[in-house]
From TrEMBL:
Domain Pentraxin (PTX), first and last residues per copy: 32-165
The protein's name: Pentraxin family member
Subunit composition and interactions: Homopentamer. Pentaxin (or pentraxin) have a discoid arrangement of 5 non-covalently bound subunits.
Gene: nptx2a
Pfam families found in the cross-reference section: Pentaxin
Family: Belongs to the pentraxin family.
UniProt-listed PANTHER family: NEURONAL PENTRAXIN-2 (PTHR19277:SF1), PENTRAXIN (PTHR19277)
Amino acid sequence: MAHRQHTENTLNSLLERITELERSNSAFKSPEDFKVALPLRTNYLYGRIKKSLPEMYAFTVCMWLKSSASPGIGTPFSYGVPGQANEIVLIEWGNNPIELLVNDKVAQLPLSVGDGRWHHICITWTTRDGFWEAYQDGERLGTGENLAPWHPIKPGGVIILGQEQ
């Protein structure tokens, strides 16, 4: 229980820091300056964000990833709602490409992060035509459409970092 509370406090601090950074013009920070690290592939080491989200018609998910592990990076981000565990999921297993799932619909992303170096990735999606974009290290590497078009992201879910729902 103490570990869970510590993780939640860390994630809340991280959210506050992100808000601070978004409002300021402070200098760029390296990935090592962030506090959430998942050094082992386990089914118990993950972060859970308890902030309730409203219904969404678009989203952007950005994160720093570093992996040299096989098979793949696993599930660095997932958002599940009652009745739909895969409302939003970023996943990679084995030699498969990184995939974005929205409402269980899948798009393969042209990202590559398994070289043991830090990479900043951002994924954007909008309900209008199911349009998505994938960025790695500041460069747009791919776009697509028809990924769960016109599907609003349901409210009241749970965000999990480092594991599928």
